[in-house]
Amino acid sequence: MFMDVVEIQQIIPHRYPFLLVDSILELEPAKRIVGIKNVTFNEPFFAGHFPGSPVMPGVLIVESMAQVAAVLVLREVKDRGKKLVYFMGIDRARFRQPVTPGDQLRIVIEVLMLRPRHGKLKGEAFVRDKLVAEAEILSSIVDRGE
Questions:
Q1: Could you tell me which CATH number the domain at 5-143 has?
Q2: What's the whole-model pTM score?
């Protein structure tokens, strides 16, 4: 299963400059998803983080994980246009290696628990085959406007 950025935008509401997932490579409904974030020098956050030594902020790596997780969760929701997935918490976050321009993040999300309005998912981010970050993400599905 491959999804490009246009298909991703039909599922989650994020848009440039805050859309942090470029494609989906694999998807097992309610179980697992693999997404890609191409990290380019043109990312707006590199202007200040850090000039002359650009590093992707860890919080944005986690946000990339959360967006890939939201694709997994919302894709199966019948009226997803009326829903949002809120990022409610993070556990066991670890950052193991800097992510820099030219890297490609491969984000693997596995469902730990998924209920109609809440979920807990495990995220791992890799550059090439090296684990660069991991976290458990807690989320809530809400009606837009809540």
A1: 3.10.129.10
A2: 0.96
